[in-house]
Amino acid sequence: GEFRLSGSEDDPRVDLALIGVDTESIIRDSRHADDDAARRRLVRAMLAGELRLTDDDAFETREDIVWRGTVRAVDVLMDNVRDRDRMPSGKFQADPGTIRMIIDYPWDEGNYSPADDVLRVGELRNQLEDTDTLIWLPRFLSDDRKADLSTLIVINYVLERDRLTEVTPLLTADDRHHARTQLESRRSALTVRLLEALRRAYGVSAPDAADLSDTPVTDHMLALTTGLHPRLLAGQGLRGAFERSCQQLLTHKYPAHPDFDPAGRGREGAVKLARAMRDVLLGEDPPAVLTRRATGALAGLRSDAVGRVHATATVVSVTDDDLRWWTWAGYRANATLAATLARAGVADPAQHVSPLFLRLRGDLRASAWPAAVRAVRDRLTPPDADDKAVAGLKFSTALPRELAVATLAARLADFDHAAAVLAAPVRFEGQLS
Q1: Is the dihedral of CA 228, 232, 238, 241 positive or negative?
Q2: Is 264 helix (H, G, I), strand (E, B) or coil?
Q3: pTM strictly above 0.85
Q4: What digits encode the pLDDT tens for the residues 116-145?
């Protein structure tokens, strides 16, 4: 409690006020906020944070990983593997050129268990042709952790906007302040406890009976790719397990693929790969024996690439309002150019950066291009580092935020190759307004 002074100067009064507010009744009266959909949303958001995925409240998102110096796309979908209505077999089929990662939730309705998810995976292997799909099956949460999840959902609901005022009309302003403080403290504790339980459930931390159900999971990561048996390593974290599993799939499928970044330098390997792709499209034969089918496919790719590649210049292709600057400079250089040109009002600020091209603003005029390039040539800007990327930086909690952001931005940037692209000639293919 705390002492409160009241009354007048001539007749002062000291009261002992109890600070502890009955927050349990607040939570109990708001239990209607907890349902299966809310649980899915919260766990999806927590996993997205740990995996450093974009969480826009969608069940599916796309993420890039780096393997042997190349950037590869991964489509990530979170849903119930066992449920044939929610997850028909077509949702397990990877798109050409991408990996698909299906992540199940650490609970299910009724008497279903992870064994039912494993049975579904066996059925899918018989139904689908060889596909680049990984399926991440968690052990289910214990009843205590599911109760924590329920409580956390309710606390989040109560603390949204000004809802605490709505659900506590009889509390004084001071008591409402104390209630908020208590609920925020409890929310923090529950979040930490549930994150650790999720790491255990998905197999990247040692299991604990207090956090998990009695039914074990033998293999957390399964594959629909023929002959692939991925393995998770303890202690690598959820993001590390995600990247390593995708890399295992690619290594299994393309064992002879050259490593364009054997020293882990990132920038040089990515640029070399992008330039090698451009050179092949320009007519250079790849250092491999091609089958007749591959030769025909390559001829089609070269035909489609007309207007996107040139031997001595970069190319801006114009199709209706779609403007793309084909730099063939690699991911980091293009991320640097995208950040720089977005601030100059030339590039699309919301684009998903490609190692091959940048998306320019649809209303860009040809007459504005030379001046825009001159204005930014000596003022390159590093890519933005979002909160999730900063959180994933080793020892980020020990650094001032400004230093952590600057450190990560420097790692993401490639100023040398970005400057070289800006200095190179540019050809325009198509009619620019």
Answers
A1: negative
A2: coil
A3: no
A4: 999 999 999 999 989 999 999 999 999 999
